[in-house]
């Protein structure tokens, strides 16, 4: 639950060994109910040691937020969570 949609904290953590041959290449975050659904993307490398990123985003209303992780072998993993917003962040 986010009390204020103007600044919703988000942490994305992917279970990956982050070795030269097996690592997370990129992560994409989308919020389906926002006027611009594409929230942010991250580029990763094995040098990070851990596949985890944190940021804040703006959500206009209660909605699903999806993260997609693209792995070094080309496979893609996704996860979705519903975030309840009590005060909208996009003019609401």
What does this structure look like?
- It is built from no helices and six strands.
- The protein is an all-beta fold and 92 residues long.
- A hairpin with a 6-residue loop joins strand 2 and strand 3.
- The mean pLDDT is 94.
Q: Secondary structure elements and their pairing?
A:
Layout (H helix, E strand, L loop, with lengths): L7 E7 L9 E8 L6 E6 L7 E7 L5 E9 L4 E8 L9
Antiparallel strand pairs: 1-4, 2-3, 2-5, 5-6
Structural class: mainly beta
Rg computed from alpha carbons, rounded to a whole number of angstroms? 14 Å
Tell me the major beta sheet.
4 strands, antiparallel
Give helix % range: under 10%
The overall average pLDDT, rounded, is: 94
Strand residue content: over 45%
Question: What's the number of helices?
Answer: 0
Write a concise synopsis of the structure shown.
By secondary structure, this protein is mainly beta.
List keywords for this structure.
mainly beta; two-stranded antiparallel ribbon; 92 residues; four-stranded antiparallel sheet
């Amino acid at each position: 639950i986010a009390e204020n949609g103007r600044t919703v904290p988000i942490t994305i953590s992917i279970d990956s060994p982050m070795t030269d041959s097996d690592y997370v290449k990129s992560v994409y975050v989308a919020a389906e109910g926002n006027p611009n659904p594409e929230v942010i993307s991250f580029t990763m490398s094995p040098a990070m040691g851990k596949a985890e990123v944190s940021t804040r985003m703006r959500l206009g209303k209660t909605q699903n937020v999806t993260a997609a992780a693209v792995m070094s072998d080309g496979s893609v993993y996704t996860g979705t969570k519903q975030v309840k917003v009590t005060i909208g962040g996009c003019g609401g």
